[in-house]
Amino acid sequence: GAVVSQHPSWVICKSGTSVKIECRSLDFQATTMFWYRQFPKQSLMLMATSNEGSKATYEQGVEKDKFLINHASLTLSTLTVTSAHPEDSSFYICSAWGAVNEQFFGPGTRLTVL
Amino acid sequence: AQSVTQPDIHITVSEGASLELRCNYSYGATPYLFWYVQSPGQGLQLLLKYFSGDTLVQGIKGFEAEFKRSQSSFNLRKPSVHWSDAAEYFCAVGAAIGSQGNLIFGKGTKLSVKP
Prior knowledge:
The complex is a heterodimer of chains A (114) and B (115).
Chain A: E1 4-7, E2 10-13, E3 19-25, E4 32-38, E5 44-51, E6 57-58, E7 67-73, E8 76-81, E9 90-97, E10 103-105, E11 109-113
Parallel strand pairs in A: 2-11
Antiparallel strand pairs in A: 1-3, 3-8, 4-5, 4-9, 5-6, 7-8, 9-10, 9-11
Chain B: E1 3-5, E2 10-14, E3 19-21, E4 24-26, E5 32-38, E6 44-50, E7 56-58, E8 64-68, E9 73-78, E10 87-94, E11 103-105, E12 109-114
């Protein structure tokens, strides 16, 4: 099946710094990638939808200047958490939409902001 | 409002016993329904999906789910649970295929399996 990777799998950073998370579709081209956030014992909440070569569409309540998304190629999307604060600590999951009309999910990135 | 409800936060079953995980949804249009499984440190894996046709759908790992429009439900079942089935299970509803729409997830049900 299709594989989606995320890097890093776990990151710890100091408050005020920026963190970049990569999402790659390894064996297929993804015109659309989604970024989700998952709090402990909570559901996945969609943050934004990114289409290759265009600006991301953010869900209501998600700060686009804080969560910068770039989808520069058909196999790579990045999420940058700018000026991270402890409340940004969470599990971030990406998914990629392939030609088979199915979302394939990455393994997630756990962000801890000290 | 569009939503997915999984009433059971945590379920424990004995190995070899049958399993049913409940899922109810509220969706304005024709729902497209999914069940995913998430193991610790892993991404979400699709178990099965329902778009149209036969309301009883078969998935991977011996799972099946039944779509009941009158009850707005899409419950997941397995006749005999294996220890390796212990994981978090998410029900999700989405827009029509081809629209590349986002998914709305339930809060998940954690399954524990007793030996």
